[in-house]
Amino acid sequence: MKAFLALARHHHFGKAAEECAVSQPRISQLIRGIETKIGGSLFNRTSRQVTLTVLGQQLFTSLEPAYGRLEAIYYQAQNAARGVTGILRLGFMGSGANELMAPLLTRFRERYPDCDIELVETSFSDPLGPLRRGEVDVTLTRLPVQETDLTVGPVMISEGFILAVGLQHRLATRTHVSLEELKSETMFAITGNAPDYWWDHHVPRETPSGVPISRGAKVGSFQELLTLVAAGKGVSTMAASVAVYYPRPDIKYIPVVDGGENEVALVWRSGEQLSRIKALVDVARSLLVTSR
């Protein structure tokens, strides 16, 4: 039944196989077996697409909520066996996992109703400090994280970069920019304990050809950075989603065509054996499969 539901949702044998953690031939075999038992075709198959038949749609409509209830019962039993209870302190920076944040919390609550997630905001001036100090159990943070005492889990978001400039800036009318064009600009330094390699990834010290990019005022918070950008004190590269979650009438956000990837992942202390952390990581991985 899981194979049928996965194929009905994705309309793609490869994605259904990935969700079920089996091979594509195995998905085909399972679907044929279900169709044989039912006595009718559940899918229309062509070289280009897979769609539900009328019978398949009827089965999907009835089965999906019922299977969801059975799955909830299963995870409740698993929860009790593993001891996934208490409070899981989840750090997050900015908008966290963006559009996946709410589904992540919802699915975790559904699977582990006896475990509450306590959200703790972290700052880009000290992205890993709360984790090391034990203030959070696991954190959603921007990569890269290259620390031997920390483990990087599944990547929740992968997006590009944008450049934030004030409205009077020379680039404010542009539809896109390249990093090479920033050689005459002033970026910002950072206060706090963020690793140098981490800040350099998000706010580069030089252009792709190696020309240094000047750094001016030090900032300790994201709102401080945006205020200084709006005041014309400098420009800054940042995650593309900032334009959606932090729009401002006094700032222009411009796509950076060669900025590379800006990723968010779950990170926790290496060697940590909390069942709550493993449960969250499992939920995140399942969410990533179904959201593709």
TrEMBL record:
Family: Belongs to the LysR transcriptional regulatory family.
Organism per entry: Cedecea neteri
Keyword Transcription regulation in record: yes
Pfam families listed in its UniProt record: HTH_1 (PF00126), LysR_substrate (PF03466)
Taxon lineage: Bacteria, Pseudomonadati, Pseudomonadota, Gammaproteobacteria, Enterobacterales
Keywords for this protein: DNA-binding, Transcription, Transcription regulation
Name used for this protein in its record: LysR family transcriptional regulator
PANTHER family, per the entry: HCA OPERON TRANSCRIPTIONAL ACTIVATOR HCAR, TRANSCRIPTIONAL DUAL REGULATOR HCAR-RELATED
Domain of life: Bacteria
